[in-house]
Amino acid sequence: MPQGVPVSIPDDGLTTRQRRNQPVLAVHTGDGKGKSTAAFGMAMRAWNAGMRVAVFQFVKSAKWKVGEESTMLTLDRVHAETGAGGPVEWHKMGQGWSWLRANDDQDDDHAAAARAGWAEIARRLDAREHDFYVLDEFTYPLHWGWVDTAQVLDTLARRPGRQHVVITGRRAPQALVDAADLVTEMHKIAHPMDAGRKGQKGIEW
C-alpha cells in the first residue's frame, strides 16, 4: 500500500467517504514487545481526533500503575478542562472493574471477572458509549477459554456505528485473526531481559 493508496478497490458500491469511515478491528499479537504500546499509541491518535476512548486491561492487576494509564487519564483531564481531544476511561480487571465492586467473591475468580468485563464491553458497544476501544491482553481470556471467542466475534461483527476496537496479547485465536481488518504480529529479535537486565521505568512501565 504505497503512500496510503490501496492496492485494489473492491467493487462493493461504497463511496470513498463510506469506505474511509468503516469501523476497524485490529489485533496486535506475537511474542515480541510493543503490542500494548502500539495500541495505546493508536488510542492517543484517536483522542486527538476527538474520539471517546476506553481502555480495558485484562489480566493486569488493578494495583499496577503504568505510564500509559497516567498519560491517558491526564488527556482526559485536558479534555474536561479545555474541550481538546475526547474523554478517556481506563479499567483494569479485578477491583478496576468498578461494576464488580459490590461482589467481592468475583475478584478472586479471574475467569468470572474476565467474562463480566467482556459483558460490560459488549453492553457499551451496543450502546455506542465509546468510539475507540483498547482490549489489552484480551487474547489470553480467549485463549484460555474464559470468554467464548465465537460470541466475541459475533458481537464485534454486529457492533453498531463507527466503533474501532484494538485487541492485544499473545496467542490470538486464529478465528480472531481471520476476522480482523488489521493484524500485526510482533516478533522478538532481541530483548534486554535476555541478557539478564531488568525492566526499566520509562521502558516497561
TrEMBL record:
The keyword Transferase applies. Its EC number is 2.5.1.17. InterPro entries: CblAdoTrfase_CobA, P-loop_NTPase. Gene3D superfamilies: P-loop containing nucleotide triphosphate hydrolases (3.40.50.300). It is an enzyme of class 2 (transferase). It comes from the Bacteria. The keyword Transmembrane does not apply. Keywords: Transferase. GO terms for molecular function: corrinoid adenosyltransferase activity. This is Cob(I)yrinic acid a,c-diamide adenosyltransferase. It comes from Gordonia hongkongensis. The lineage of its organism: Bacteria, Bacillati, Actinomycetota, Actinomycetes, Mycobacteriales.
